[in-house]
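Suppose a colleague, Dr. K., hands you the sequence of a protein chain of 418 amino acids and asks what its three-dimensional shape might be. Before reaching for any lab equipment, you can write down a predicted structure in token form. Begin with the sequence itself:
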Amino acid sequence: MGDETVSVKVAVRVRPLLSREKLSKECIRVFVNRNQLLLGKDQNFSFDHVFGESTEQEEVYNEAVKVLVDSFKDGYNATVFAYGQTGSGKTYTVDGDSTQPGVIARAAGDLFNYVTNSERDEYTTFEVRVSYLEIYLDEVKDLLNKSQQEPLNIRDDEKGHVIVQGLKEVAVSSVDELRGLMRFGMAMRTTGATLMNEHSSRSHAVLTFYLDKKSSKHARNMEVTSSKFHFVDLAGSERANRTGNVGERFKESIHINSGLLALGNVISALSDPKRRSTHVPYRESKITRLLKDSLGGNSRTLMITCVSPSTDSFEETLNSLKYAKRARMIKNRPIVNKDIVEHEMKRMESEILYLREQLKTRENSSEVSSESQTNTESLTELNRELNNELELYRTLITESIKDIKYCLERKSVSKLSK
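The predicted structure, expressed as tokens, is then:
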């Protein structure tokens, strides 16, 4: 499993023409059955999924996203991120609306259906948590924490994992509670009007589900898996001459485009076999640091590229499709995220079982030579040492679980104060 490589999957979604685009012509032909599209007269592209203008939200989820949710439930990290020019349908695809829920709401429903059904098994316990942040003007803001005063910092922990210091992870016990937090975070997100989008997202947003699963049919065979699922809504690429941005909006555009440029550099480096093994510029921006595992790391990842069919957006659409084509060449190495100590404990127990079988075989032998007697004594001593070491591991695990539960009881919040 650890050596398995999988490509980043790419879906392209073509939205319908908007009312302000009705006078323009369409520049895209979609061939859904072949997962291909033709841009203009001669620009052909193939992707893992291609969705036309009439595609419903449910189809996008079932065809492209659901498989990642299933992997997430099995202990794999997963990421879905939406990319495209401003006004291309990214936020609608990810968040949806009251009549057509997006991929996040549908994933939340599937997750809690799984947890609810699995909880009938008395030996398995679950904990689901959620965090929600935005990167606005290159500063990280917690969308679930009203009282946050200072921007949050991103750093690497002692294991090399990227973490956001001070980011609130809220424990949730139902899909309604989770969706309530999602609505709360969306309301906190920075938006603004431009000439191309009346409700333009002015920040990159990352919503993360965390799933901890403990299975203990026997105390000595307890398994712990911890996985996370990032849903990333990237702010749209913008050109000032089309958006009409000035003042604060223009400043926002600079930061948005800077982050997207850094993301493009990371994708270019990872999609080039000659550069992949050298330097990948994750540290050029905050969004690329947060997506380090998602692109080239321990994750199953889907990029949903949203485009406009209008001839007015031909250049932006072409750039988005080229961007998506490069992303398909990225290789990730997803693994099931099991607790390392648990694996070591199992290894030791298997070794002890083997030694006990060896001892039993020798004890049943009618003739025991002096040499075999010596071997038996050596095996007995090794068995004793392994048992002592195993007991130490059990004690350490028990204490660690107590500490984790204590921290969670203090940090987890079931409801936000309104």
